[in-house]
Amino acid sequence: MSVVTPAPAASADPPADPAQPPRGRRWRAHLTVALTALALAVYVTNGLWQDPYRHGLSDNIGDQAFFEWLLGYGVYTLGHGSDPFFSDLLNVPWGVNLAANTSISVYTVLFAPLTHFAGPQVSYVTILTLNLAGSAFAWYLFLRRWLVRSPLAAGLGGMFCGFAPGFISHANGHLNWTAGWVAPVVIWQVLRLRQPGRWLRNGLILGVMLAGCFTIAAEGLFYTALASGIFIVTWSLAGPVRTEAKAAAGTVLRALGVTAVVAGALLAYPLYMHFAGPQTFSGTGFNQRYFAEDVAAYLSFPSRSVAALFGLGSTLAPNRTEESSFFGVPLIFLMVVSAVVLWRRAAPARRATLRAILVVGGVFLVLSWGPRMNWMDDELPIPLPYAALAHLPLFDSALPLRLALVVVGVFGVLLALITQELVDQRLSANLQTGLTAAIVAALLPIFPLPVRHQERAPEPDFIANGTWQRYVSENGVMSALPFALNVTADGQRWQAYTMARGGPQFRIPDGYFLGPMVNGEEGAGQIGRIGAPPGPTDWLFTRAALYGYAAQLSNADREQARRDFAYWNVELLFLPEQITGSDHMTLFRSAVETTATDLLGPPEKVDDVLVWRIRPGVDPIER
C-alpha cells in the first residue's frame, strides 16, 4: 500500500469496483458527519450553553477561568499591542510567562471579535464545542482520504476519535487538549511531503501549520510529531515498501528542511520565551509519577459514560479531567480481535501500514504508564521505559498519562478499518455477526454523558459597571477576596471580562497559571508550580475561604500584611456577595469577611461588594 494515495480496505484483494462515489453523494456524507459531530458536541457541552455567563465546569472550574482569561487577554493584546507570550497583569510584580503555559494565541486572536462583543464565557464554550466537533470531522476526512472508502467506516472512526473518553474528560476545562483535530490535520500534511515536485510548497505549508498549532496545543503537537516519526520509520523499514520509501526519502527530507526553517523562524520568539524567557521554569508543575496512566484504567469505564450510570465508572485517574484512556474491556477485546483479523487479511504492502500503526499504539500505550507501573491505584516497583525519558527536554514537561490520547487515534483507525471490512461483507457470516455485535457492545458503554456544570458567582456590578476605576489608579493593583487561585478563580475571571470589554484595566497579585517555584531568575532552574509562591497574607484569605478558619490576628500579622501589600502595591481589596469553589465546593465567605475586617477594619459597601482601601506601606495600621 502507498501512504500517499487513498488506500483500499485492509484485505488481501481489492474490491471489484474501486470507483469513487459521485461528488454530490460525497458531500452529502460530509455534511451528515459534520452535523452529527456538531450535534454530539452541543449535547456534551449543553450545560454550559444553557447559561454561559453563570454556569461553569464543576470538575475543573479553575482551568475554565484560566482559558477565559486568555481569551480576554487576546482582546487586550490586540488593543494595546502587548506581548502575547508574557503578561504583567497577573502575579504582580513579576508577571507570567504565557509561552510556558498554554497560551492558545491563535484562538485568542481569531475569536477576539466574539470575545469582545459576547464575552470570554461565550467564546470559551464556542471553542470547546467546535474543538470536539472539528476533531471528529477532521478524523473522518483523514480516514476517508487515506485509509477507507466507506463514509460509515470513516464516520464511525472519526466520531470515536473526537468523542473518546479521553477527550470527553479533557472537555472539563482544556481548550488545548480538546483540539484533537491537530493530529489528523498535521499527519495529513506529513503524508503529503513525499509528493514529487512539491517539496517546497508542502514543506512551507507544514511549517506554517506547526507554528500555528504550537500556540494551540504544544504538548499535543509534540505527541503528534513523535507518533508520525515512529510511524514513518517503522513503515519505511518494512520489506514490501522499502523501495518505495527510498524513492521518496529525498523529497521528504527536502520538505522537512523547509518545514524546519519556516517553523523555526515563526516560533523563534515563543520558543525562546518558553525555554529562556522571564518567569520560566524547569519541567512541569505536576508530578509525572502521579499523572501516569494506571494499567487497569485501560480496562475501566470513564466517569462520564453510559456505563457510569450503572455504577461502572472508575476513579483510577488523578482527577476527572485526566481520564485519558478508560476504554473498557469490551473495546480492548474488540481492538485485539480487529488487529488479528486485519493482519490475516492484509496484503504484504498493507501489512506494512498496519504494522506501523500497531507499533505507534504499542509505544504510546507503554509510555503512558509513566516511570513506574501502576495497577489499581498501587505503584509497583517495576521501572518502565518512560523513566529513561522523564528528564529529557520536552518529555520533562509532559504528563505521561496524556500519551494515551495517541492510542485513541490508533483505535479509531482500527475501528474504521474493521468497519470497512464489515461494509464490504468480505468476512464469514459468523465473524460478520460477531464483530458487529462486538462494536455495539464496545461503544455503547463509553457513549459520553454531558460534562458536569455548576453555578458560579456572577460578575459584580462593581466590576461590570466600571465603579472600580474610582478606587484604583490606571493599571493599578487590586484583588478580589480570596486571592485568585485554581480553586478560587473568580478574581481572575473578572479581570478577563474587563479585558474583553477593551476599557481601562487593573492588575492582580497571584492568579491561576504555571510559574516558577521561586520568582525571578532563581526559579528558572527549579520545577514549576501552580500559581505564585504563596505569601502569609494571601494564605490568610485562602485558608479562611477553604476551611472557614478565621485566625486571631496580631500586630505582627498586620506588619506582615503591610509588607505584602507594599510588595504587590495593592490599592484595593473587595469581597463580592458570592464566591465560587470547584466541584460544588462550599467556600466560607463569612470567614473571609471576618478575616479582612479584623485585618483592615470595617469595609465600605460599594455597589454589590465590600471594599477595603489600601495605602501601600501604611495599611493595615497596628491596633
Mean pLDDT over the full residue set? 93
Span of the ends, CA to CA: 82 Å
Q: Name the shape in a single word.
A: elongated
CA-based gyration radius:
26 Å
Helix proportion of residues, in percent?
40-55%
Low-pLDDT segments, ≥5 res: 1-19
* DSSP strand count: 12
Structural class: alpha+beta
Summarize the main sheet: 4 strands, mixed
What percent strand?
5-15%
Instruction: Name the strands of the widest sheet in spatial order.
Output: 7-10-12-11
Number of helices: 22
Features:
623 residues; two-stranded antiparallel sheet; 22 helices; 4-stranded mixed sheet; alpha+beta
Give a quick summary of the entry.
With 623 residues, the chain is α+β, with helices and mostly antiparallel strands. The protein contains 22 helices and twelve strands.
Describe the protein's architecture and organization.
With 623 residues, this protein is an alpha+beta fold. It has helices at 23-44, 46-50, 61-80, 105-110, 112-118, 120-146, 151-163, 165-170, 182-191, 199-236, 242-276, 306-309, 329-345, 348-367, 386-389, 404-424, 429-443, 461-464, 490-501, 536-547, 555-568, 589-600; strands at 55-57, 86-87, 96-97, 372-375, 378-383, 453-455, 477-480, 514-516, 528-530, 570-576, 604-606, 609-613. The strands form five sheets. Strands 7-10-12-11 form a four-stranded mixed sheet. A hairpin with a 2-residue loop joins strand 4 (372-375) and strand 5 (378-383). Residues 1-19 have low confidence and may be disordered.
